[in-house]
Amino acid sequence: MNRRKFLECGIAIGAVGVCASPALGGQLTGRIRKSLKYSMIDERLPLVQQFQLLKRAQFDGVEISLRNGLSPKEVRAAIDATEIEVHGVIHGADDEYSASIDLCEQVGGNTILVIAQEFEELSYAENFARSLDIVRRAIPRAEKQNVRLLIENVRASFLKTAEEMARFIDELESPAVGAYFDTGNTITWTRQTAQHWANVLGHRIVKVDIKDRGHTKFGDPKLKSQAAIGTNGGEVHWANVRKELADVSFSGWASAEVKGGDAERLTGISKWMDQVLDL
Length: 279
Hints:
The chain is of the alpha/beta class. It has one domain: Divalent-metal-dependent TIM barrel enzymes (TIM Barrel). The chain is 37% helix and 15% strand. The protein is built from 9 helices and 8 strands. The chain has helices at residues 3-9, 47-56, 72-82, 98-106, 124-144, 162-172, 194-201, 238-247, 263-277; strands at 32-36, 61-64, 85-92, 111-114, 148-152, 177-182, 205-210, 252-256. Strand 5, helix 6 (162-172) and strand 6 (177-182) form a beta-alpha-beta unit. It is globular, with a radius of gyration of 18 Å.
């Protein structure tokens, strides 16, 4: 795909369901596919059986990383057998993206999750310039292989506000770069609400991580910010987040990123996602 065609595709490369007939339900019903991180599966089974477990729990896909040590051939076989998609690769903060981009293409994914890491010995401006350079160097390879680079809001980043993250993405001036919006990471250390981040990032959001540290079962209440006013005692005000995502016609993957477990717990996480996203 040449650069012009890639630009025309824009966010659509990571979107799903935009042409489907709307189903009855909430604002995001029919627009979101559910996923989780592969490391959340505690059942030690052959990969095909793990993917079958995800299908029974009503997940549509999963994200992997190089650290999982999965062979692309094995992953493709599990995808073919179960129709569970591996839609992305979690890269993290390493400066060299090539191996993650290659793995993503090999398993049929379309994004890698990356972090604009903070180095305390550098100034804000130096961190900003350094991370811009790292991402820029990866853009040609990502474009060639139809993979997008999604910047996630995390504790280890120097991008401490939604406005800073939006500016960082915009300065890269490439449709190959977008945002991986983590609902829970917005609150504990930024003092901005999840809905504020969703509003500011807006159309830049390509995928969403589902997390709420304040939730009694799927979070960690000991880490809850007492200043956060969320749903059912949590940190995230889910109705407000849903509205912001709906306002920009978000359509794509939402991945749980919470403590995993056995088949019963993964099914519970799937149902919790249905609830908070009103699917």
